[in-house]
Amino acid sequence: NAEYMGENERKKRLSMAHTPSAIVAEREIAGPPVDLSFKEYKTFADVDLEEFKREETLKKAKSPTNAETKPKPSTAIVLAGSEGEVRKTKVKLLRRSLRFNNNLLENLNGFFDFLRGVRIDPLKLSWLDLSFNKLTKADQVLTELPCLQALYLHGNNIARFQDIDKLALLPLRSLTLHGNPIEEIRNYRIYVIGLFPTIRNLDFTTITLEDREKSGVLRQMFGSPRHRKPQSP
Q1: How far, in Å, CA of 103 to CA of 132, rounded?
Q2: 94-107: string of b/e by CB count within 10 Å (b at 16+)?
């Protein structure tokens, strides 16, 4: 019996010695946008976060579970000499987009607390739709979104360049402002292009080299649009 137990122990230790060790790495992929449009919310505090979480849970329960629509962790085995090393990749869905259009927002008070409540990291938010609300300016809080590349503000009540110029600090690639009173200012498009040197698309229209040249001429003639008050038509 002692000899049998000793042999079993030896086999167990040998097996453990050759068991591949697991290294888990995390891979982040973009998840679907959080969509809270057409809700008539007046403030971010109006959102029932508990109800939102319940709805999200129901969506997950109803979503397809086949391999084509649901990402699964991938596993690769890398041999190192006589021992194997198992590397597992854990897929993590990141929420980088928010639709909050067609509501009744007048300001962005409580925006960061709301983002965390719907499980969006403010530091990773890259796409934001605030169109068709009642905003009169781009709140300072937007400048604290370092990855924001697309911002939709059309259909609000923004009337002055001074109300949006702070957004030039962002790495924006796409911006919309049409449908605001600011659109009625003479040379509106050229001024906005001058304010935002990084954008490639304004009001769903690609910015051309000619647009850039006109913006440069306007700056040479009148100075930066950030520091002068444009004249109305």
Answers
A1: 7
A2: ebbbbbbbbbebeb
DSSP label at residue 197 = T
25 three-state secondary structure = strand
pLDDT digits (tens, 9 = 90+) for 166-212: 998 899 999 999 999 999 998 899 999 988 889 999 999 999 999 99
Alpha helices in 18-162 (DSSP H): 49-62, 111-117
Q: Residue 142's CB: how many other CB atoms inside 10 A?
A: 22
CB 185 within 8 A of CB 159: no
- Residue 83 β-bridge partners: 80
Per-residue tokens: 175: 């911006």
Edge to edge, what strands does the sheet with 127-129 contain? 34-35, 97-99, 127-129, 150-152, 174-176, 201-202, 205-206
User: Which H or E run contains 221?
Assistant: helix 209-222
pTM score, whole prediction: 0.75
Length of the chain: 233
